[in-house]
Amino acid sequence: MADFVEVVEASSILRRVEDLAARISDDYEGKEPVLVGVLFGALPFLADLAKHLTMSCEFDFLALNRFGEGGRARIAMDTETPLEGRHVILVEDIVDTGLTLSFLHRLLEARDVASIATATLLDKAARRIVEVPLEYRGFEVGDEFLLGYGLDWQGRYRNLSSLWAVLNLQSLTDDPDRLARLTYGR
Ligand code: 5GP
Fold first, then answer.
1. Phi, psi for 43 (deg, rounded to 5)
2. What is the span of the domain harbouring residue 92?
3. pTM value?
4. Could you tell which of 130, 141, 151 is best to mutate to test the pocket of ligand 1, judged by most ligand atoms within 8 Å of the CB?
5. How many structural domains is the chain composed of?
6. Is residue 90 included in any domain, yes or no?
7. What is the pLDDT of residues 19-63, one digit of tens each?
8. Catalytic residue among 3, 48, 93, 96, which?
């Protein structure tokens, strides 16, 4: 069996991101939302999404330090934009247990935002521990470990334009460049 499988190719990702951007543009007509990307994984998704919105928006970013069990987290880098009274769209690469997103919801609600919605490229729905509303969702995926389009393994592979499932993580540990040789084609 192969150690890596391409699960969503780049053109399919882009088509889906365009659909989501069209829906968001309709839903937020007349408003100027702030897209808040959760670093680092949300970066490619946020960039593609924002480019296809047909309205004004701002974007900002935050980063989290996760520690311990149960999704405990603290803010490692906060947004600069004052969010009070703003329509916030949280942009995530993937929602897995939902613990990160529920932490972020609580954080933003405490800032008296006008509204919060979430756009996530990927949803590991079967692994959810905490139910969180996902207004804009690209693809539902299984519980394989995924890489590419923002998702990393030890900081690498975020720049792949498609999504890959790693079926054998040991093969990356043994040879961190294996997927690079397969995907970058050089
Ligand atoms: P949650 O709090 O929903 O369990 O976790 C969300 C975070 O887990 C994501 O932002 C991401 O950092 C990480 N994560 C979950 N599944 C995957 C995966 O398949 N691949 C990678 N690279 N990260 C994942």
1. -60, -55
2. 10-143
3. 0.94
4. 151
5. 1
6. yes
7. 999 999 999 999 999 999 999 999 999 999 999 999 999 999 999
8. 96
